[in-house]
């Protein structure tokens, strides 16, 4: 059994694409196909390095485009969540820390998708069709763990700059490392995983499952606008559900050496005690807007890049035919 590719692969007279295989199985069953079912292409072997390479390129491209376009909304969200009591929201320097953040977003996004794609496709081969959602959830969590190694220091520096603590990324890294030690760059790591693992798993699972359902209903491949709309819905829904986790993560990351909070549980208790439980939903508006639009751009760019790479992939049938002629 070979990989399921989300990109539109060039059609061959001798093999069926995953979507064509899905449609044939769908029609053969009289249209009775479960929402979570998926068909895996059998003819092609699992090419780990190709999937890894294409995932790295597509993920890095999508991550940079999204971060650059939506950074001001993210800055506003961070400042809303970090504000305590009646502090006023500052709207200056909405691009503070962008350059340093891109230096981390590029490899983190590339690593996430680079891990997610081959893991997902391998799990889809191992799990039965009706458990494809489990494969997507698991692959998203594994990708999130791998990317967290880069994401967390990047997020710490970015949010310290967004809240006005530093004017440049190098200055932030030097100060944090000297005053708080290396562990200061991983402040809030536990809360980051608490937020990002379920976020990554849920967002990609919702997106993948909606695409499967849409493909089965439409009996065709999806176009870029349709992928973007599905990505926006998956991002907005997941962003809203995980907002309390994001607030906790932000508070722990921006507290610095003051250590107002002693951990995740103490952070939750203190916020509820001093500001009330609604404070755990601070920034939900810009967060849903940011991740909704971001999901639209990210998945739109991701699928377009993957299709671009797939169309330039060597055709083994043509190559073998040429060799025989030679």
Automatic annotation (TrEMBL):
<feature type="transmembrane region" description="Helical">
    <location>
        <begin position="51"/>
        <end position="73"/>
    </location>
</feature>
<feature type="transmembrane region" description="Helical">
    <location>
        <begin position="133"/>
        <end position="152"/>
    </location>
</feature>
<keyword id="KW-0150">Chloroplast</keyword>
<keyword id="KW-0812">Transmembrane</keyword>
<dbReference type="InterPro" id="IPR018108">
    <property type="entry name" value="MCP_transmembrane"/>
</dbReference>
<comment type="similarity">
    <text>Belongs to the mitochondrial carrier (TC 2.A.29) family.</text>
</comment>
<protein>
    <submittedName>
        <fullName>S-adenosylmethionine carrier 1, chloroplastic/mitochondrial</fullName>
    </submittedName>
</protein>
<keyword id="KW-0677">Repeat</keyword>
<dbReference type="GO" id="GO:0055085">
    <property type="term" value="P:transmembrane transport"/>
</dbReference>
<dbReference type="GO" id="GO:0031969">
    <property type="term" value="C:chloroplast membrane"/>
</dbReference>
<feature type="region of interest" description="Disordered">
    <location>
        <begin position="1"/>
        <end position="29"/>
    </location>
</feature>
<keyword id="KW-0813">Transport</keyword>
<feature type="transmembrane region" description="Helical">
    <location>
        <begin position="94"/>
        <end position="113"/>
    </location>
</feature>
<keyword id="KW-0472">Membrane</keyword>
<keyword id="KW-1133">Transmembrane helix</keyword>
<keyword id="KW-0934">Plastid</keyword>
<dbReference type="Pfam" id="PF00153">
    <property type="entry name" value="Mito_carr"/>
</dbReference>
<feature type="repeat" description="Solcar">
    <location>
        <begin position="49"/>
        <end position="122"/>
    </location>
</feature>
<dbReference type="InterPro" id="IPR023395">
    <property type="entry name" value="MCP_dom_sf"/>
</dbReference>
<feature type="repeat" description="Solcar">
    <location>
        <begin position="226"/>
        <end position="308"/>
    </location>
</feature>
<keyword id="KW-0949">S-adenosyl-L-methionine</keyword>
<keyword id="KW-0809">Transit peptide</keyword>
<dbReference type="InterPro" id="IPR002067">
    <property type="entry name" value="MCP"/>
</dbReference>
<feature type="repeat" description="Solcar">
    <location>
        <begin position="131"/>
        <end position="213"/>
    </location>
</feature>
């Amino acid at each position: 059994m070979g990989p399921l590719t989300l990109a539109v692969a060039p059609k061959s007279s001798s093999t069926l694409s995953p979507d064509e295989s899905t449609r044939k199985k769908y029609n053969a069953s009289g249209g009775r196909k479960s929402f979570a079912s998926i068909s895996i292409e059998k003819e092609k072997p699992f090419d780990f390095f190709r999937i890894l390479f294409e995932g790295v390129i597509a993920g890095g491209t999508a991550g940079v485009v999204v971060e650059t376009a939506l950074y001001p909304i993210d800055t506003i969200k961070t400042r809303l969540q970090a504000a305590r009591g009646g502090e006023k929201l500052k709207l200056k320097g909405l691009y503070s820390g962008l350059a340093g953040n891109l230096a981390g977003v590029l490899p983190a996004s590339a690593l996430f998708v680079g891990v997610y794609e081959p893991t997902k496709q391998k799990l889809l081969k191992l799990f039965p069709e009706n458990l494809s959602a489990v494969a997507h959830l698991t692959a998203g969590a594994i990708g999130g763990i791998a990317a967290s190694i880069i994401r967390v220091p990047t997020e710490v520096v970015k949010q310290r700059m967004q809240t006005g603590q530093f004017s440049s990324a190098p200055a932030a890294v030097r100060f944090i490392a000297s005053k708080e030690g290396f562990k200061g760059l991983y402040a809030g790591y536990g809360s980051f995983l608490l937020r990002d693992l379920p976020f990554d798993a849920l967002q990609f699972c919702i997106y993948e499952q909606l695409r499967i359902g849409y493909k089965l209903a439409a009996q065709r491949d999806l176009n870029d606008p349709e992928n973007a709309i599905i990505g926006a819905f998956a991002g907005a829904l997941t962003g809203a559900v995980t907002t309390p986790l994001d607030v906790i993560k932000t508070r722990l990351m921006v507290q610095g050496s003051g250590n107002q909070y002693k951990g995740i549980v103490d952070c939750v208790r203190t916020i509820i005690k001093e500001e009330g439980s609604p404070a755990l939903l601070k920034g939900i508006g810009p967060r849903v807007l940011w991740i909704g639009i971001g999901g639209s751009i990210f998945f739109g760019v991701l699928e377009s890049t993957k299709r671009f790479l797939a169309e330039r992939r060597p055709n083994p049938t043509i190559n073998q035919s040429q060799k025989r002629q030679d």
